[in-house]
Design brief:
mainly alpha, 6 helices, two-stranded parallel sheet, about 140 residues
Length: about 140
């Protein structure tokens, strides 16, 4: 049985993107170059994406477009395994194009992936999501 790939955590991607801790940023960049070259395969999770989006938006005041434009090329690397990659890709699109908060954009993308068309919520921004009918209890 093959050895499972190592997990890629939030802080490595953030150090690479932000270059804010020079020694760690250089090491993170070197690791991502190995991943980009296909020398190393890694696995990550949707929670890592959520942490990155939250940190870049709240702490570093990046716009949704800036976040998508720096994060998506990393997540699209073939050597990064993310089970919900298509859902995350769509969530980033909705986050930018529909102006949804990232968590709600993820929920809308996940609903589409699962073939769900109705959501119980008080959040009215779902009224502007094609294919989704918002219901209130």
């Amino acid at each position: 049985m093959p050895t499972p790939p190592p997990f890629l955590d939030t802080n490595l991607i953030l150090r690479h993107l932000l270059n804010d801790v020079p020694e760690q940023s250089a090491r993170a960049r070197a690791l991502l170059l190995r991943i980009e070259a296909g020398e190393l395969r890694v696995r990550t999770a949707e929670t890592v994406v959520f942490e990155i989006v939250f940190t870049l938006q709240r702490v570093y005041k990046k716009t949704p477009r800036e976040i998508r434009d720096v994060l998506l090329p990393i997540l699209e690397l073939p050597a990064i395994s993310l089970s919900g990659k298509p859902v995350v890709r769509e969530a980033l699109r909705l986050y930018v194009e529909a102006g949804l908060p990232f968590a709600d954009a993820y929920h809308a993308a996940l609903m589409a992936d699962l073939g769900l068309t109705e959501i119980y919520t008080f959040d009215r921004h779902f009224d502007h999501c094609p294919g989704i009918t918002r219901r209130e209890p």
